[in-house]
Structure prediction request, 338 residues.
Amino acid sequence: MNLKEKELWLELYKVAEKIQKLEPWKYLWDVDLLVYICKEMDEIFYCSVMGHGGMHKALAIYQGEQVFGFLEMAKNQVPEHVLLNYDECITCNFMRREQTLPKNREIIKELDLSFRGTWISFENFEKGYEPSPINIKQVKIMIEGLKNFYMMLKAIIVNGFKVDFENGEVLIRFYDEDRKLFVNYPAPLILPEKHYDKIKIDDEFVKYAMKLPKTEMEIEYEFLNYLPIKIRDNKEEDGRYYYPRARFMADRNSGVVILHDLIDKNDYENENDYIVESVEILINNFFEMGIPKSIYVRDEETKMFLKDIADKAKIKIIVSPKLKAIDKFYDSLGRMGM
Prediction:
């Protein structure tokens, strides 16, 4: 790293050490959110403090729509084997040396830092990838975020600022241009606007769908998530490993798996092509097996991609974080060592 990058890394570690001295995990639960509205970056940052239960101590920083994944996890309904698909964030970790990523230990060494007992490190959690060290752009983001979250934590822990977390309040911070100062205030949780893409189905499909037999089948379909298994050849130029996409379809009642594919991202040109292909596979299933009574999907995003086809074929879509037939299939993959 060059001199400027080293200065930024050291600035980040300095604010992280100040947060460590506050020991925020003694005062906050992981569902007690801090919210920083950053006008300069046109972004909303959400901070969750982990470690109150005595487990892994860390701060998780979610940017914008990433918070929706956190809220899904907070319900404690998402199965462990797909959890990484909903945990997109950057973490500031306080852990033992052996728990720290080897590449993070190299960064710490290059910065001439030393720790006793508890090491500080930063990890990026991105959907479809193994956890990795953060890049210099993310260092700048974390400096901005942690500086402000430190002031919020200090307001609560040192100054006794009251926030009714138990009844749904969060602590919000922003810069007031009129008063030329930062303001902290308790308020209900604010969320960014969630943008869902949609796949429009040709009206020609409706003509054919109306002629297909209706069945009592209940189908489970998953195609947006990744299976967190490390494959040797799935490696980016920056050294990060990426996971294969899981596309599974099952009969919910019988437990029969109709389709099971692990798909490399190089097998499709772009995200939209993959989603269109997945929708076409579902349509082909209708022609082979008839129109099901309902389709179970794991989240709202998957539902929105299938909404138009379901509306036109008069199929009920049900969002269920746990898909009993597909999850059982995941378990069988785990027993086979995948």
Residues 90 and 152 are 18 Å apart (CA to CA). The chain is about 35% helix and 25% strand.
